[in-house]
Amino acid sequence: MNNLPPCPACGSEFTYEDNGVFICPECAHEWSIGAASEDVGDVRVIKDAHGNVLQDGDSVTVIKDLKVKGSSLVVKVGTKVKNIRLVEGDHDIDCKIDGIGAMKLKSEFVKKS
């Protein structure tokens, strides 16, 4: 009877359509009809501070001094990070920085080199 897609945020099957937008009444999530058909691959695109698409194995440069939580170390502007891995979460870049070690970075503080 209801052939609308389930909510991508909470999985509820009680979604409805309103003016070209799907709406979930349980969590109030809204998404476009075109986005529902494109979610088949469910690929997350991660971009750097300048809008360039990042991929696993890329090299990036830090664009802001970043304090390392729990220590007095600082990742300086211009630090080049090689061979990044993209992961899920708020800090979406997993990498190893010379002199500091393994870290997670936010993509908004790096640019692709």
SS-based structural class? mainly beta
Number of domains: 2
The termini sit apart by 51 Å
What is the CATH third-level topology name of the largest domain? Answer: SH3 type barrels
Average of pLDDT: 86
CATH class descriptor name of the largest domain = Mainly Beta
CATH architecture type of the largest domain: Roll
**Stretches where pLDDT falls below 50 for ≥5 residues?**
36-41
Helicity level, as a percent range?
A: under 10%
Strand order of the largest sheet: 1-2-3
Shape: elongated
Number of helices: 1
Total number of β-strand segments? 11
Give an overview in words.
This protein is mainly beta and 113 residues long. It is 5% helix and 29% strand. It is built from 1 helix and 11 strands; from the N terminus they run βββαββββββββ. A hairpin with a 6-residue loop joins β5 and β6. Pfam families: YjdM (PF03831), Zn_Ribbon_YjdM (PF08274). This is Alkylphosphonate utilization operon protein PhnA. InterPro entries: YjdM, YjdM_C, YjdM_N.
